[in-house]
Write a structure and sequence with these properties.
- There is one protein chain.
- The chain has 225 residues and is mainly α.
- The chain has a single domain, classed as Up-down Bundle (Ferritin), CATH 1.20.1260.
- Helix content is 82%, strand content 0%.
- The termini are far apart.
């Protein structure tokens, strides 16, 4: 009698376990389509699209900084400054060409178009000078100061890209970035004039400082929209 009772009890337990297992499987099967439908119906959050009024103008400047940082300095003020100034002028030219494509303001477009010719003249002059000189007299003080100038350019550009300084107004961005660029040119030329000896380069640097200061004044006087 005890054996029959135990057998019945075991059968009952197995039956109840089977029922519970089947119920769980059925519930999961019912839940999956619901979860699937929830996933399908959930709106996708798209990543913010880059603003060409910012990114397209920053790109040539960022490429310029990358070249400046990769430059292997010789320590010779004349040779190193000529090389750095050429890269800086090329970066400005690339930036101005981008500005001409994106600008919506006729005054900004005309300014960029005029300055492109000037940067090409600078690049040609610096190319000719580099063919005539060779690094010969390392100056550690110059190298350290010029290295700080380049790092300052890099840091300023990073801060500009991450801050609210640039807006969706491409013409205002052109003015802001070009003004910073001109100041960088002044800083590097001023450093060179403390150490440089090459007559042609010294004349170039002195004229560049005057030209950049004048250009920054004109940029500051441009009407704010």
């Amino acid at each position: 009698m005890k054996t029959k009772t135990a057998t019945i009890t075991q059968s009952t337990i197995l039956l109840m376990t089977g029922v519970l297992l089947f119920s769980s499987m059925f519930a999961c099967a019912q839940a999956k389509p619901i979860l699937g439908s929830l996933k399908k119906g959930t709106p996708r959050v798209s990543a913010p699209q880059p603003d060409p009024a910012k990114t397209a103008l920053l790109q040539p400047m960022q490429q310029m900084v990358t070249k400046l940082k990769k430059l292997q300095a010789t320590g010779d003020p004349d040779f190193d400054y000529a090389f750095v100034a050429k890269i800086h002028a090329q970066g400005e030219q690339d930036f101005l060409k981008q500005a001409m494509q994106l600008s919506k303001d006729s005054a900004t477009h005309q300014m960029a178009q005029t300055l492109v010719a000037g940067t090409q003249a600078d690049i040609t002059m610096l190319d000719g000078t580099l063919r005539q000189i060779k690094p010969s007299r390392p100056n550690q003080a110059f190298s350290q100061q010029q290295s700080r100038n380049i790092e300052a350019i890099n840091l300023k550009l990073q801060q500009t890209g991450a801050s609210d300084k640039l807006t969706s107004d491409v013409d205002k961005n052109v003015v802001a970035l070009l003004s910073d660029h001109q100041q960088d040119a002044i800083d590097m030329a001023t450093t060179y004039l403390q150490y440089g000896k090459n007559t042609a380069l010294r004349t170039y640097a002195q004229q560049l400082v005057e030209k950049a200061q004048s250009q920054r004044a004109r940029l500051g006087a441009m009407p704010k929209k």
